[in-house]
């Protein structure tokens, strides 16, 4: 089969690889219907994170179950499934509390890399969710989005305690931030302020439910949010970048007693204790427990209530994966979908 | 009248001062029945915080209303009242959300210093709560505790989402930590692990409801908490110190999806973003909105359901305030009560 390997920063190749086999009785192997390039794949691509030798890439995936181990019960060969980027047993105390990304058995969900024709998924029962039937092709991008970026934006909104009557600010206009806007709308937010300075992303943010756009960043961005909220700040802020600037922007844009949901993978962030203390905000986030939300998100997509697949503005055959990375790195694309 | 002035680190004097007068129509002046020395008073006393010239001290107080401004409606001359260390209007949007310490009109509650015979309190209607009648003298220490340390420990427990069935860890065995234990018990925690290496404080922690004591600190303390919780960590951790070590201890002692309520005033704390991100905990805290809890706490004390006044293990006449500071600084006393 063919699959993506990153050899070094900037060096992504599609190569011949072994088709993965069942290793544990709880494994499944999927024939991948679609995969994609994640914003977090750009960290090693840009050399911000180390590349430890040739690495199979991709952790977002939808596909058809091709093989299952002897102990797999909830999905069967032929099912179309959506999985999470972390595998979880979905039975431990942490999973039952809704934190499957911190499962006591947590391990990578796409164990052999999802940017590939086939992928092995461990703990299949606790990680995969089958769709109600074989999806129409036009639903596939949205189902793929549920695997990570939608689930992550959704968790950001849930962590920020978005709800009816609230004003929500969204820091970050990548796929996760844009889908944070969509989640905030679905969760009933009254006002959704997207922070973006790119016309195309602003347009998509508005389509997903943003009521206001703030182009300013940093202290000026915070000042604009305060202006829009009677001087108080947002009730809920979704942070979807992961830098020091974006985290401080999120904390400062939020009123005392409000909630910051942060889902941008933190890089070189140090939060000043005194400022955080006197801010009075709630802070929650981390790697999104996508599995918690999958049944609900799949249904919303299946019923065509939401169309998160719109974040894919570039679709390429798997063989052209390197162009997908380049396009996202150069910000020519929000998110690239790869079809094996 | 007599009142406490801090002139420099370590230099606390009781001096003749002007009796405060009503300045704003929303002010009240109280005849102080009891005041005390706060752990946070030790920061300037120890030179960790600057002392900006001679400073009137004390922000915890109970007393009898002596004068009120023309616009004061909810308390009247002769009422026995408990106040918060921050004055709040209790009507703005932030107050109505329960965050009175971040009131848009926030200012010091004991404007002229509470370690004194009289004190002026601004925004009296939004800051003071009258007791159901004149209290028996033995209730005064507990009512005084409600003014700050109990309210703060209580907020720590609320911020940590303490509740039935949960295991709670408490970092810090000062008055706030000990009253965090009491709060956790009142809020229905199943198991309460107090972290303390002082026999007298351990005894009080047990009296307030601690079910386990952990003497180890830092990584060893975290390892003990994990041992006691099936490897997962506490559901809820109350942080009542405010140092880098105590904050990291609290975060690391808490399971993913659990809650850290931090009420120790942060000093030189920088939270590493990556570790926080992957911890999956909720973080909330800051200066406690004591006013939110005062009606409930006063009633619990009035009905003799709780006895938080036990944290005062030293009672001195106001004239001997300097000895109260010394005793707390040298850890000879948990908390010193001063009677004018």
TrEMBL record, chains A, B:
Pfam families: ADH_N, ADH_zinc_N. It comes from Kocuria sediminis. Residues 175-286 form the Alcohol dehydrogenase-like C-terminal domain. One of its GO terms (molecular function) is zinc ion binding. Residues 25-123 form the Alcohol dehydrogenase-like N-terminal domain. The keyword Cytoplasm does not apply. This is Alcohol dehydrogenase catalytic domain-containing protein. Its cofactor is Zn(2+). Belongs to the zinc-containing alcohol dehydrogenase family. It comes from the Bacteria. InterPro entries: ADH-like_C, ADH-like_N, ADH_Zn_CS, GroES-like_sf, NAD(P)-bd_dom_sf.
């Amino acid at each position: 089969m063919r699959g993506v390997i990153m050899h070094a920063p900037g060096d992504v190749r599609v190569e011949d690889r072994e088709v993965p086999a069942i290793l544990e009785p709880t494994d499944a192997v999927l024939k991948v219907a679609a995969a994609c390039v994640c914003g977090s794949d750009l960290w090693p691509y840009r050399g911000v994170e180390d590349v430890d030798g040739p690495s199979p890439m991709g952790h977002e995936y939808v596909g058809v179950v091709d093989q299952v181990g002897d102990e797999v019960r909830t999905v069967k060969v032929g099912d179309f499934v959506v999985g999470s980027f972390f595998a979880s047993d979905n039975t431990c105390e942490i999973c039952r509390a809704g934190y499957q990304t911190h499962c006591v058995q947590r391990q990578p969900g796409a164990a052999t890399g999802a940017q590939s024709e086939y992928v092995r998924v461990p703990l299949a029962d606790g990680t995969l969710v089958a769709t109600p039937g074989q999806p129409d092709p036009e639903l596939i991008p949205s189902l793929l989005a549920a695997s990570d970026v939608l689930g992550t934006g959704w968790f950001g909104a849930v962590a920020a305690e978005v709800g009816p009557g609230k004003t929500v600010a969204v820091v970050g206009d990548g796929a996760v931030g844009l889908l944070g806007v969509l989640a905030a709308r679905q969760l009933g937010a009254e006002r959704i302020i997207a922070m973006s300075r790119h016309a195309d992303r602003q347009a998509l943010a508005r389509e997903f439910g943003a009521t206001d756009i703030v182009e300013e960043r940093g202290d000026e961005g915070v000042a604009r949010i305060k202006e829009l909220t009677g001087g108080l700040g947002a009730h809920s802020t979704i942070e979807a970048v992961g830098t020091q600037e974006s985290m401080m922007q999120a904390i400062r844009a939020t009123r005392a007693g409000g909630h910051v949901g942060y889902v941008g993978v933190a890089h070189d962030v140090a939060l000043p204790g005194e400022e955080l203390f006197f801010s009075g905000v709630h802070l929650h986030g981390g790697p999104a427990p996508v599995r918690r939300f999958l049944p609900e998100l799949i249904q919303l997509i299946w019923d065509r209530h939401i169309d998160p697949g719109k974040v894919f503005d570039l679709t390429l055959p798997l063989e052209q994966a390197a162009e997908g990375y380049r396009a996202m790195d150069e910000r020519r694309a929000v998110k690239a979908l790869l079809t094996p």
